[in-house]
Design brief:
By secondary structure, this protein is of the alpha/beta class. The chain folds into two domains: 215 residues, UDP-n-acetylglucosamine1-carboxyvinyl-transferase, Chain (Alpha-beta prism); 208 residues, Enolpyruvate transferase domain (UDP-n-acetylglucosamine1-carboxyvinyl-transferase, Chain), CATH 3.65.10.10. It contains 13 helices and 24 strands. The strands form six sheets. Strands 3, 4, 5, 14 and 15 form a five-stranded mixed sheet that branches. Strands 2-16-18-17 form a four-stranded mixed sheet. A four-stranded mixed sheet has the order 6-7-9-8. Strand 23, helix 12 and strand 24 form a beta-alpha-beta unit. The two termini are 19 Å apart. 53% of the residues are buried. The N terminus is likely disordered.
Length: 428
């Protein structure tokens, strides 16, 4: 993708409809499949990751109808899934892999999980270990650290598990296995990770208790079908929030964005940096808070991001790094080792690609240090097959002097299929 806009002349004005939240879209299919009755899902994200989830549940015997305006899931109940007659391919989706492991652990049959080459490098032991403690038989490369994974599920016992990492995927996988286990399963995290699973399970009629950083679920409950409206994904909105902040004379309205407090770290960080963002038209849908976000350009200042704030903005750190390049002063991102096991080593790739564009940025063991007030110069850059890198570099290309070529921009389709069209419509 060549971007030949001169940095001085572009401004972004208009409205954007942000695609449905990826995390919530995945869960709507999974919980709808386990529920009794028919679940209708609107604003479902038809990106590749969520389509992988649909594909896996179809192979488990669930009828799922994908229409233009909604996805209809004909639930089979908690015991109703059937043994797949081929491998379950999660594609590029870590969420699909880790959450489905919890479900498959509770089902009395054999299944094999595979994914693409990026998934084959992502750590699965953080999920397979607790699931084995509950009684699942899981095998795979390097003692179930990596895919392909073979899972024999069945009789599970509840556990009380202290997770060494704050990860919604780990927590959700154990809670889903807990649905099938005897007794009450408790998961405790060092910091509270995003809570879409807890909110949506309640919307499906499940009884679970949240106490600080601990969540407990009692086994052998059934789920009841419901209608799910998926809010716009704040992780996708983040790219426009930063673009609208750093490009002068811009004003963008982002409609119906999820503002779940476990996900709004990007808003907290940008507001601390001096961004001009207002929330309008706030409401609650399926237990999830939603609002329209209005962003106007502003002068940003540096900040330090770390500690318990990191889980609330982990996926937004690449675009926050770009915002920091335009802020006055030195921005420090720390306590973000988790970035090294995302679609790519995001610390390494962010530093590598922004350096090519002239940003003064260095990697640390657990984050990065960015000197602000950079002037970006066009270059040839790579997305490394990571959708969030592709979108961040697209925004960087708008503000770089000259024409930037981005390699493998197609990967953006994973989470934001019409990103380029939406961005082009704003350019004035």
């Amino acid at each position: 993708m060549g971007n030949s806009h001169s940095a001085q002349k572009v401004r972004l004005v208009g409205e954007v409809t942000i695609p449905g939240d990826k995390s919530i879209s995945h869960r709507a299919i999974m919980f709808g499949s386990l529920a009794n009755g028919t679940t209708r899902v609107t604003n479902f994200l038809l990106g590749e990751d969520c389509l992988s989830t649909i594909d896996c549940f179809r192979k488990l015997g669930v009828h799922i109808d994908v229409q233009d305006e909604e996805v209809i899931v004909y639930g089979k109940g908690i015991e109703g899934l059937t043994e797949p007659n081929s491998v379950l391919d999660v594609g590029n989706s870590g969420t699909t892999a880790r959450l489905i492991m919890g479900i498959l652990s509770g089902l009395p049959f054999h299944s094999v999980l595979v994914g693409d080459e990026s998934i084959a490098k992502r750590p699965m032991k953080r999920v397979s270990n607790p699931l084995r403690l509950m009684g699942a038989l899981i095998d795979g490369r390097e003692d179930a650290t990596y895919t392909p994974l073979s899972i024999r599920g069945g009789k599970l016992s509840s556990i009380s598990y202290h997770s060494p990492v704050s990860s919604a995927q780990v927590k959700s996988s154990i809670l889903l296995a807990g649905l099938f286990a005897n007794g009450t399963t408790v998961v405790t995290e060092p910091e509270k990770s995003r809570d879409h699973t807890e909110r949506m399970l309640k919307a499906f009629g499940c009884d679970l208790k949240v106490d600080g950083n601990s969540v407990s679920i009692t086994g052998n409950q059934s789920l009841k079908s419901t209608s799910v409206t998926v809010p716009g994904d704040i992780s996708s909105a983040a790219f426009f929030l930063v673009a609208g902040s750093i490009i002068p004379n811009s004003e963008i309205l982002l409609k119906n964005v999820g503002v779940n407090p476990t996900r709004t770290g990007i808003l907290t960080v940008l507001e601390r940096m001096g961004a001009n963002i207002t929330l309008e038209n706030e409401k609650i849908v399926n237990g999830e808070p939603i609002a329209d976000l209005r962003v106007k350009s502003s002068k940003l200042k540096a900040t330090t991001i770390g500690g318990e704030e990191i889980p609330t903005c982990i996926d937004e750190l690449p675009i926050i790094a770009l915002a920091a390049a335009f802020a006055s002063g030195e921005t420090i991102i720390k306590d973000a080792e988790e970035l090294r096991v995302k679609e790519t080593d995001r610390i390494q790739t962010v530093v590598e690609e922004l350096t090519k564009l002239g940003v003064n940025i260095e990697a640390t063991k657990d984050g990065m240090i960015i000197q602000g007030e950079s002037s970006l110069i066009a270059s040839n850059v790579k997305s490394h097959g990571d959708h969030r890198m592709g979108m961040m570099l697209s925004i960087a290309a708008l503000v770089a002097e000259g024409e930037t070529e981005i390699e493998n921009i197609e990967c953006i389709a994973v989470s934001f299929p019409n990103f380029k069209e939406q961005l082009n419509e704003l350019i004035k």
